[in-house]
Specification:
about 65% helix, about 0% strand
Amino acid sequence: MSSTDFSLDPKQDLNNILGYVASNTLTMISIALILNVAFVQTYWTKRWGPKWMLPLVIGEYTYALGFGLRFALHYFPDLKLLYIVEDFFVVLSPCAFIAADYVLLGRLARYLDCTSYLIVPAKRITVIFVISDISTFLIQAAGGGLSTAKSISTALAGQHVFQAGLALQLASFAIFSTIYACFLYRIYKYECKVWVKDASKSWRSDWRALAGALCISCIGILIRSVYRVIEVSGGYRSYLATSEAYFYAFDTLPLFIAISVYIPFWPGWFIQSTELPIQNSQTTTLDKEP
């Protein structure tokens, strides 16, 4: 049974871990939207591939699971274990979205045969940034676990570790986004033929459409990452951390845009895996990954 006094202002109720009563309406809308994206992209993956986008799809399901637990938090906002599990899925699932973007850049560079324009070698860029993603994931998980300790000193240490994980993740993704921006600029400046090679094709076959989708995804993840760092730096009872409106505006919405942008611009339509059978006799070698 909940020990929370619902007659109090949630921000003033220390038993309310979130600092607000989670809205069931917003939770329901979020789950519906995220699962719709996941269902569509599950079909896209099965129909067109590629398998290397599976982390994105799996992350969407775990992300939706985290939101599902907010229904329980609405009625039991004081249950620490429930909050820990919910926070684990909501905060850490986006690591899978980030990993998918890391892999996509390397695949796109090889598809265009423009790996020389990457600041980091194509064979290493995915490995380096995925390892970084896993490392920051583990740091955040460790910090989140410590922050729930009964000891105040341990909990504060956990908060600092968690904040460090978020900051490192932001720095890593900012560096990745810079590398990607430089990559596109160099192709535009030095490889005009590559830049316009799909200009006569439909948007669904123009690699620049996929490149634009990756740009939008990066922007969404960067907005969310900046928000999370600022939120945690202010403490768990700060105005930013205890506002559900800010959570949805600067965390949920940017991430939703970052993943849903791949519905109309699915990588499997632009970079077909060589393991998939050719479904159209008019498919050219440019439609297949080298």
